[in-house]
Specification:
about 400 residues; alpha+beta; L-amino peptidase D-ALA esterase/amidase; Ubiquitin-like (UB roll); five-stranded mixed beta sheet; globular
Chain lengths: ~400, ~400
């Protein structure tokens, strides 16, 4: 039901970033379903949100609060997405922000709300408000692991990663968590991702950084092609590390910090795929040889979202014909099929648009056997590249999604 | 495994159009897998083909022959798609056309070849050539039913329809067959469709007619979003009916003939969906209130191809949140979600972007129970409309596609 061990390494605390976790009993009593993240004054906060036109009330409000004030709290509930809930849904989100703000002594616009779970049910505001004092009392810097558990819905395991790097003569920490297992084709964001660092970065640079990192991580994964109404990804920089503040992309500390941030984003995004609903394979569709990145992404998604390719992956069947057919319908302008090569885990199965002469079914079966599969596609028409990560399509995917919510 | 009875009505012969059916033993001995259709001299022939860049060798050749000569024979084999087979595949297709042409006393360019089945295996030319004399000897006008069986692959039942109409003082017949159950998202054509009429129509008008009818039938269905490499749809008019030849869209007989042709196309396209791999539901996604037809088609496909919507349909779960989420990510410019209504089989479940106030889960469950489901979506921003037909996503879909070919 999930690929790989999912073992979490050590999660280093981030100075200036405290987390409280608790249970509001939104869907089930006793389940961790409410998380508050406290951001020290003077931090920079940046975020990207879903592009789904049906975006949820909390997404609308978080966008608005982020644009207008200095955020001090992130308020996250699971079990209810507060999406498709109209004007009352927006009022409910506002009310939760106000209650947290009153308890914490900040302005309501300094709270960014996030919800995930069932679409279209009224948010149980009272349960959330009643649990806030307990959650606030729980705040501490070494609470990342429980936070990762606290934002899970159909996830089978928490997703978190952490790393430290030397930056400007000091040690900087980046720690992040994510959640998501279905309705996954983020567009400028993931289901939910929260990443904090004690590095010092201006808000403008941080915003550029979150976009750039999301574009090559959360925006390169797909489980079912369904973009959520609630996707959001937040990057916080508390500035507690005593190095020069990074105020531009040309700052000498920008590149090493960005590289580490991107690695964290990619690891969190891949963790969502490894825990994809019903996943038995972790699949990288690595497209090279495109004229531009956009067409590599197009081909990657066409292959990654093809139900025929995905069921063949589930069956460990090296059905290269289905891969070629998906490439062919990806909509790439004047694609020369006779220049396309396809390898699976290093075995060249299709060459110049047809079966590779040296290829045997036995090789293909061996290449398809592992849990981790790389489908490498060379379009043979340029130097651009892009990789999309996805899962197979299994019976468990159907079971999970036919039974959830009924 | 299929929706509805699938009972075929009477299939009227079309004067000037004879069909031979036989078994070449391509995949299994004894299975009907080879069909030859003989077109009387002086007939008009028009066709549309897949837009997949990886189109099969027979598609390339059929396109070329159709453009350059007066077709007299259609040669169709199942069990092997002759796709992804490179230059040898093209030679094999040419060779089959030459052999049929020699036996029939026509030019090889007057034969249009069609193949369907496994991608990437060499076409067993000898088996096909050896069976040709038997198939030619079998030619007769009342052979439509066996032809419908002869072009099946993963289909569970033959697909055919027939109708007669009074036209210009005489009776005209239209009869057609189709096949397809997977890799179904035709683009300007279906998997395979053959429709013949004894009406008299010029080639130019017939070509316009096949495009127009395919656009609102075969190009409005999707099972898995995967466009085949071999899609083709052929419309033949033998002209044996003694009415005025239809030589323009303004001809008084054009409209009544077109209407009947379109009805045949829609019935054949819907038959493919009813027999969709693993289908337990026949689903019409009827989108209205769009600014233009294109955006209605976009929304229709986004909903029809959403794995989350499809698994909810399989579970008979009125999960309108998933429908709204799919509409929201369809990419419609500046969509106002607060103007969108959604009904299922006449029950208004979402109104102005949220749950309909009068709606109860019991109503939703009752609306989702039947085999035939209409999801009506009103975008509330214009007068354009389009309907997409699709299936649910069931365990059997996964089983069929994980086991096929392995």
């Amino acid at each position: 039901m999930a690929v790989g061990s999912g073992e979490l390494g050590e999660l280093f605390p981030v100075s200036g970033f405290r987390i409280g976790v608790g249970s509001a009993g939104i869907k089930r009593p006793g389940r961790l379903d409410l998380v508050v993240m406290e951001i020290a004054p003077g931090s920079s906060v940046a975020a990207v949100f879903t592009r789904n036109a049906f975006c949820a009330a909390p997404v609308q409000l978080a966008r608005q609060h982020l644009a207008g004030s200095e955020p001090r709290y992130l308020l996250i509930n699971t079990g209810n997405a507060n999406a498709g809930t109209g004007a009352p849904g927006l009022q409910n989100a506002v009310h939760c922000c106000e209650q947290l703000a009153a308890l914490a002594g900040v302005d309501a616009t300094q709270v960014l709300p996030f919800s995930t779970g069932v679409i279209g049910e009224p948010l149980p505001v009272d349960k959330i408000v009643n649990a806030l004092p307990e959650v606030l009392a729980d705040k501490r810097e070494d609470n990342w692991r429980r936070a990762a558990e606290g934002i899970m819905t159909t996830d089978t395991r928490p997703k978190a990663t952490s790393r430290r790097l030397e930056l400007g003569g000091t040690t900087v920490t980046i720690t992040g968590i994510s959640k998501g297992a279905g309705m996954i084709k983020p567009n400028m964001a993931t289901m939910l991702g929260y990443i904090a660092t004690d590095a010092a970065v201006t808000t403008e640079v941080l915003q550029q950084m979150v976009r750039r990192a999301a574009d090559c991580s959360f925006n390169r994964i797909t489980i079912d092609g369904d973009t959520s109404t609630n996707d959001a990804c937040v990057l916080v920089a508390t500035g507690h590390a005593p190095h020069d503040r990074i105020d531009s992309e040309r700052h000498p500390l920008y590149a090493p910090l960005y590289e580490a941030v991107e690695a964290v984003f990619i690891e969190l995004a891949q963790a969502i795929i490894r825990d994809g609903e019903g996943a038995t394979k972790f699949v990288s569709v690595a497209v090279t040889g495109g004229r531009e990145e956009r067409e590599c992404v197009q081909v990657g998604y066409a292959v990654a979202e093809s139900p025929l390719v995905k069921t063949a992956l589930f069956a460990s069947d090296p059905n290269w014909g289905r891969i070629l057919a998906a490439i062919g319908r990806a909509g790439v302008e004047s694609l020369d099929v006779n220049a396309v090569d396809v390898s699976i885990n290093g075995v060249l199965i299709a060459e110049r648009g047809g079966r590779s002469p040296g290829y045997t079914e036995e090789q293909g079966a061996a290449a398809m056997a592992p849990e981790e599969i790389t489908i490498a596609i060379d379009l043979g028409r340029g130097d651009a590249a892009a990789t999309i990560w996805t899962t197979d399509l299994s019976h468990d995917y159907v079971t999970i999604n036919a039974e959830y919510r009924t």
